[in-house]
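Morning. Coffee machine broken again, so started the prediction first thing and wrote up yesterday's gels while waiting. Chain of 209 residues, entered below exactly as on the submission form.
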Amino acid sequence: MIEFKDISLTFGNKIILDKFNYKVDYGEKIWLNGKSGSGKSSFAKLLLGFLKPDSGEILLEKTMLDSLSVSKFRNRISYVSQDVDLFEGLVKEVITTIFKYPINKNNLLSKEKLRELLSTFYLEENILNKKISELSGGERQKIGFIINVLLDRDIWILDEVTSGLDEISKKSIIDYFIKNNKTIFIISHDNIFYEYENLKVLRWNNGNS
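Came back before lunch.
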């Protein structure tokens, strides 16, 4: 489904990727494990088209990522990070507004699914009537997760999503994503992921994997 062919990427004198080759099948869960500064987040930026490799190709179902196809790539990817950027307003209004964006015009907002996800991530339904500015950092993260789940994209990139969450919240979120049939890239140095045997580990170390 996704193929990285001979990808090389450098920043100054630092090698991030050196003729990197990797194939990911639909539904696989990949854990990118490596030290901070080893280039794990650059991997996500490459897949989203925010970085261009020095050489090599990225293919999604045999379509090459370039300036002509980048919007189609992004339409199929949900990027979720610990720093959830949500505009001010009531939570329910923010969610409704996001579903009105042109890019999301084919997605229907299921209130039943929304209630189910609130329960799954240990949030009370009355949080929908709170302002974004009234939420704790953990609550804001969970609302970001829920929005991305509701958008139902094919590929998810989870970038340090467990940072700042308590153990119960971490487990509820990871369990949900792992059991899902989506293709998932997990970027994290959190040791909790060692507990999940069905993850494929891609060890990241100064441009080598």
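The longest strand covers residues 14-24. Going to sketch it on the whiteboard this afternoon.
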